[in-house]
Amino acid sequence: MTSPNAPKPVGGLLPTLTRLFEASGSAVSLYDEADVLVYANTTYYELTQQKPGTHPHWEMVIRDNHRSAGGLQIEAEDIEDWLKRAQERRGVIPYRQFEVDTVDGRWILMSETVIPDLGILSIGVDITRAKHTTNILQHEYQQALVEAETDALTRMGNRRALDRLRRLLTLNGQNRTISALMIDIDWFKPYNDTLGHLQGDDCLRDIADIIRSGFRSEEAYPLRIGGEEFLILMVDADQQAARQSAQRILRNIRSRAIPHPTNDTGYVTLSIGVATTTVTDNESISTVLDAADKALYQSKHSGRDQVTLSVEPD
């Protein structure tokens, strides 16, 4: 709907400026102090799906786009509430920028400039290609971070991932119970020396799969932190839960029955050390890892193929 008192388009007074706006490729509009559209170039009319040459009120443009689900993307169940909040921001500061998206998938960077005694000049620039490129770069960056924290052989987290987990748990894990399962493959060097490194790599991948299959992704963080050494960090898991998880891993590895030519059992076995603590300070994670490592050493010293619980105080 056009205002009955629609002002004369600025283009009639400034034909040169109008030609520049038409050729710019940007969506240009000028709303007067009553928020009635004084001037818009063809790109703006197309962007908002308004009839060229009309002079609607800004709120009517928004309502029309929302009702028709066309033009500017207005995601609001209550359009009147949305308009009320938008009007509280509109024209309050002399200059502002914001992004809007359109129903056809484009992104527009809008700028609004308050011109005293005239109104609000708005210029919209299509940034879809730049936005798409930025999203790709962000995705590639995130993928690079994931790869940097992933062990190439087992696809588990590596020591970089452990460092990040330690920081996160120190910051966000206060007063939470953390359990660590330190796992080592028994007699792995003789396995490699006898069967070769390619067979050794297959063995490491098999064991990584066995470890992963024993946990839901949200309850544990499995990592490979050395040649044949693995670590599982369990959040909100007490010693009993950690011990049960460790014993389940032993049962699963025994069931898989991976042949080992130099192990007395004839099969690949694991030694596991378990420690539990409550996060209270920056040293808590280091303490529980050290305790799990000592418990692992005890498992190996006591004959291997077993789980040992840390006797370190919490």
In short:
The protein has helices spanning 15-24, 42-48, 58-68, 79-89, 128-148, 159-172, 188-195, 197-213, 239-256, 284-301; strands at 27-31, 37-40, 95-101, 107-115, 119-126, 177-185, 220-224, 229-235, 270-278, 307-309.
Tell me what you see in this structure.
This protein has 314 residues and is an alpha+beta fold. 43% of the residues lie in helices and 21% in strands. It has 10 helices and 10 strands. It has helices at 15-24, 42-48, 58-68, 79-89, 128-148, 159-172, 188-195, 197-213, 239-256, 284-301, and strands at 27-31, 37-40, 95-101, 107-115, 119-126, 177-185, 220-224, 229-235, 270-278, 307-309. The protein has a 5-stranded antiparallel beta sheet with strand order 2-1-5-4-3. Helix 7 crosses helix 8. The longest helix is centred in the middle third of the chain and has 21 residues, at 128-148. Residues 8-13 have low confidence and may be disordered.
